User: Which sequence fits this backbone?
């Protein structure tokens, strides 16, 4: 079983982003970029499937600029077998990415696609579900457990109010939530080995997919900061403030 | 342009998120219909008909809608959009809405706008990105506007109606997925996403037993929902559905009491729109104090029982 894992290059989760002074976007100059943390979990899950011989090959794919090769190398160092960069310097919105991934799926015919549940830059949480729709496949989002069972998968999902376990026929799209696994750190030998693994570059235009942005992004702003409050001396003062000043209890 | 709001429910009750989505839908202008797809869900149909602002309820019943799974539901919504010429499709931005909605958008070949917090007119929205650290305004000319709306940003629609109920034909049963089992916690407490008061605990509580012993009496006294930081959930103190934060639930109660929570960015993203924030933490430098209206630097194991006793 081939497993395809889409990965995205995003601003590192430790970076506090700043809006550009002309409000046209987020300032990405000199900012540390990393693999999207949810995608890292997806790669880990796929690599574990291959290590337990449930997957035959793990292919990672990224849609974006040349710099995304770095992100793909990170995934290769974690244990993915080969990588595909669908190269585009233009802005790619979730539907465009889903369409590009669909073209890759048509070519590679994976039985399982594991995505991160959302990217931590645009927080859209759409691509996996959209890809499943375009494939006409079943979907299991926000996965915290994945079990392969013959021609189907059993996926435990984190839903409002608890957990839900689905059986989904293959091919299927799974999106990874935080508690699916703890991704490994790539070791130095594996980072070296990853440099020699195949990385194919496909110009987005060669896939014959319309990737024009559908949404126009305008003004970016930082939300009004919460003004700092006061420290209270003890429980009695806290209760008095909540009753008489804030009037919330 | 008519709007279709997709009802989230468990065949017996309408989820709170849907009422907020109805309020958002009224801001788009035009009729607001609400789709109740389910199995033996008459109670939900009646409840939906009495939501203020709803023009009509579209009722679709079939056994394969019982669990509101994305594949069959999306196929149904797409056929209704085409049949009845809906210009907008809305769902609350709950785990359920986030699962279903992008599938609908992709089948309609339109972009989706996720987590809308402000509607300035049809096609003009604002939404948070980067864990709520940036708000972006955007415009969409898509023929069908598919939105998920952040429930804390729109009021809960009250009682009205009753709106007329129309029955529509079920769509196909695609048979792509099925529910094996569910572990849904049934609680007498208010729903975390809709509660007026939330008491939330973090790593400072040390373990799950302490969490229950220290926080439950306070939540009982306040009639509050219980929440937790990601650290507390990851450490196994409480189940995943307690998590407040960027990747958990986004809450905005009138009062949020953070106990033993340091205040990581991803936690703040989930609660910083609360009315009044109280932080109890023994570390005076904890970032939670920067957003707290009232900070109490104290040992939570003494302060919280004392607080419970005083209320």
Assistant:
């Amino acid at each position: 079983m081939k497993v395809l894992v889409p990965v995205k290059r995003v601003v590192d989760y430790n970076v506090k982003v700043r809006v550009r002074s002309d409000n046209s976007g987020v300032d990405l100059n000199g900012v540390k970029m990393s693999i999207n943390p949810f995608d890292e979990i997806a790669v880990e899950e796929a690599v574990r499937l291959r290590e337990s011989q449930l997957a035959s090959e793990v292919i990672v794919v990224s849609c974006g600029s040349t710099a995304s090769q770095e992100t793909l190398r990170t995934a290769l160092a974690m244990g993915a077998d080969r990588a595909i960069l669908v190269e585009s310097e233009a802005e790619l919105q979730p539907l465009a990415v889903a369409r590009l991934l669909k073209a890759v799926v048509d070519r590679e015919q994976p039985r399982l696609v594991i995505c991160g549940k959302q990217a931590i830059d645009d927080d859209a949480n759409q691509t996996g579900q959209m890809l499943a729709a375009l494939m006409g496949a079943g979907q299991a989002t926000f996965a915290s457990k994945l079990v392969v069972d013959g021609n189907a998968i059993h996926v435990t999902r984190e839903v409002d109010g608890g957990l839900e376990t689905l059986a989904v026929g293959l091919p299927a799209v799974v999106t990874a939530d935080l508690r699916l696994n703890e991704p490994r750190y790539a070791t130095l030998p594996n980072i070296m080995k990853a440099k020699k693994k195949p990385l194919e570059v496909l110009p987005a235009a060669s896939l014959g997919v319309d990737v024009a942005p559908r949404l126009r992004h305008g003004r970016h702003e930082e939300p009004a900061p919460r003004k700092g409050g006061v420290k209270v001396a003890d429980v009695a003062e806290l209760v008095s403030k909540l009753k008489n000043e804030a009037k919330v209890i | 342009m008519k709007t279709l709001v997709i009802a989230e429910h468990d065949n017996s009750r309408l989820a709170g998120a849907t009422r907020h989505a109805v309020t958002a839908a009224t801001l788009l202008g035009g009729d607001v219909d609400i789709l109740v797809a389910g199995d033996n869900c008459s109670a939900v149909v009646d409840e939906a008909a009495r939501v203020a602002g709803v023009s009509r309820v579209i009722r679709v019943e079939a056994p394969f809608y019982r669990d509101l799974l994305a594949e069959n539901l999306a196929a149904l919504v797409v056929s209704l959009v085409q049949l009845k010429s809906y210009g907008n499709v809305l769902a609350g931005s709950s785990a359920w809405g986030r699962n279903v909605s992008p599938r609908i958008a992709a089948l309609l070949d339109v972009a989706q706008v996720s987590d809308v917090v402000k509607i300035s007119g049809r096609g003009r929205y604002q939404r948070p990105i980067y864990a709520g650290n940036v708000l972006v305004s955007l415009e969409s000319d898509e023929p069908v506007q598919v939105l998920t709306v952040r429930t804390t940003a729109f009021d809960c629609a009250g009682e009205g109606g009753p709106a007329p109920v129309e029955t529509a034909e079920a769509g196909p049963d695609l048979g792509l997925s099925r529910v094996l089992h569910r572990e849904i916690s049934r609680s007498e407490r208010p729903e975390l996403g809709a509660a007026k008061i939330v008491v939330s605990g973090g790593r400072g509580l040390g373990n799950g037993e302490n969490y229950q012993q220290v926080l439950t009496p306070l939540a009982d006294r306040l009639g509050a929902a219980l929440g937790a930081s990601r650290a507390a959930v990851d450490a196994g103190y409480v189940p995943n559905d307690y998590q407040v934060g960027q990747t958990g639930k986004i809450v905005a109660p009138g009062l949020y009491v953070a106990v033993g929570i340091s205040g990581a960015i991803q936690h703040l993203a989930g609660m910083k729109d609360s009315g009044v924030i109280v932080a109890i933490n023994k570390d005076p430098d904890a970032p939670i104090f920067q957003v707290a209206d009232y900070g109490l630097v104290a040992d939570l194991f003494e302060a919280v029982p004392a607080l419970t006793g005083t209320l």
